[in-house]
Amino acid sequence: MKSWPALIFLLSSAALAASGQSRIVINDPASEPANAKLSAAERRLIDRLVLPRVRPILKSEICEEEFEPAAVLQGAFTRPAAKQTLVFYQFCQTGNGLGSAGVAIIESGGVAASFVSA
């Protein structure tokens, strides 16, 4: 079993009260990872629009690129009432849960946002 870096988005209680949204755990390294599946269209978007932009940031001599989705969630992540898909992915792994990971938010056939952690 691969160990995923912890990437948990938590909103402050004030933001929760103001927005009416609840907390979402994207990935918990202490639990067995769910089987994250991308559609063919989502994978093409990642390959065409996300990876070419994050590759120069995350490329490393000690970390070979090995894209692997860890979580795929549906919801509104960047604006209220949006229909978006959040993809949390492992870009490469150096061992023992270390390496690089990213989050891409897909909406209407495009990328609404992309974040990385190296």
Keywords:
alpha+beta; 38% strand; disordered N terminus; 118 residues; two-stranded antiparallel sheet; globular; 4-stranded antiparallel sheet; 2 helices; 22% helix
Structural description of this entry:
- It is a single chain.
- With 118 residues, the protein is an alpha+beta fold.
- The protein has 2 helices and 6 strands; from the N terminus they run E-H-E-H-E-E-E-E.
- It has helices at residues 13-19, 40-58, and strands spanning 7-9, 24-27, 68-75, 84-95, 98-107, 110-117.
- It has a 4-stranded antiparallel beta sheet, covered by helices on one side. A two-stranded antiparallel ribbon has the order 1-2.
- Strand 4 and strand 5 (98-107) form a beta hairpin.
- The longest helix is centred in the middle third of the chain and has 19 residues, at 40-58.
- The chain is globular.
- The two termini are 21 Å apart.
- Mean pLDDT is 77; it is low at 1-18.
Strand portion, in percent?
A: 35-45%
**What portion of residues is helical?**
10-25%
Total strands: 6
Output the number of helix runs: 2
Spatial ordering of strands, largest sheet = 3-4-5-6
Average pLDDT reading: 77
Radius of gyration: 15 Å
**What letter string, H or E per element, gives the SSE order?**
EHEHEEEE
Give the overall shape. globular
Helix/sheet category? alpha+beta
Topology:
Blueprint: E1 7-9, H1 13-19, E2 24-27, H2 40-58, E3 68-75, E4 84-95, E5 98-107, E6 110-117
Antiparallel strand pairs: 1-2, 3-4, 4-5, 5-6
